[in-house]
Amino acid sequence: MLWTQKYKPILAEIPHDTKQLQDFVANFKKQKKKALFLHGPAGSGKTSAVYALAKQFGLELVEVNASDFRSADEINAKVGMALKQMSLFATGKIILVDELDGLSGKEDRGGVGALADLIVGAKFPVFLVANDPWDSKFSSLRSKSVMVEFPALSMTAMVPLLQKILAAEKVQADAELVKSLARRSGGDLRGAIIDAQTLAVAGFSAKGFEGLSEREKSESIMQVLVRILKSTDPKIALDALDAVDEDLNECMLWIDENLPKEYVGADLARAYDALSRADVFQGRIRKWQYWRYLVYVSALMSAGVAVAKDKKSAAFVQYQRTQRILKLWMAKQKYAKRTEIAQKLGRATHCSKSKALQGTLPLLAPLFKQKHASAAVFAQELKLEEEEVEWLQK
Fold this sequence. Notes:
Layout: H1 3-6, H2 19-26, E1 35-39, H3 46-57, E2 60-65, H4 72-84, E3 93-98, H5 111-120, E4 126-130, H6 139-143, E5 146-149, H7 155-168, H8 175-184, H9 189-201, H10 206-210, H11 221-229, H12 234-240, H13 248-262, H14 265-288, H15 294-306, H16 324-334, H17 336-349, H18 353-369, H19 373-382, H20 386-393
Parallel strand pairs: 1-4, 1-5, 2-3, 3-4
Helix pairs in contact: 4-5, 7-8, 7-9, 8-9, 11-12, 12-15, 13-14, 14-15, 17-18, 17-20
């Protein structure tokens, strides 16, 4: 029997604050939003918490795996039926929709929308579970749910749980080896327990640990951040980027956003030095298309940042999505009208857009702000839209 099944935790053993989950179920009729959207990296305890919650409240658990349904009709048939029917045991029930990441935007057309509609009129508590809830396809679900994050577990939180299971199985395990196992998992407790059981079969030795094969899995960016920012082992950090389904540029932005939360002083300076050198090699790749430099980008971003610190921070840090892309988009939107006007001005005056921005537009804008008679002539000649005229008048 798998240890993950044998040692399913009760609610008090979940290594996260579950008060919000308990309040949601206990006072469900008073809730404005009828679903909790649990999100976080694999192995952080999301599904286990829902199982433990149902057991504590004595409720029937109806679990639906999102990977099993492919259309709006199937969702209405499976989830809709569960939401409408009373519990078989008349004790009430909880609806768990697990592995939402398995829904693809194209093949499951209408599926997410149908689920969002069902949540609005739900008569029972609904729990949605996903690793990455920020995908655009989940926007309708996010607006109708309360978001609850389950962050990756720290090594210090995982070690006592692993030691408790090993003691119950009467497995003699070196304390440092258990720490290495927890650290290697990158916050994935389920994965660490599976690895511990695998090692226990061979006697839980250092030799067995070295030969333990990496699980084939796609890690979330949160797990990658834990393995880089919370580790001082270059090998653990270097391997982190190999399993994540994110572009290296995106990973760099995530690291850049969260570095100041983990590092201070000289550690932070050394880490940013490594990250900036990675960015230099990225620029060389773009300029010369010399893709062999990717190995330097990856090494500097991961191992370079990890070994920049003298020691890792023991404090809990809640990592955040990078804000730079959003700021760039907002800036682009802000100046979109100016760019469109400059393009029209450049065509009319036979010059480039940049020259129109720097030279002609600053001379033209005051005429519109003062609502000079010639402004209407210019607007007609340049074929300016009403919104563009309003922008020039601001």
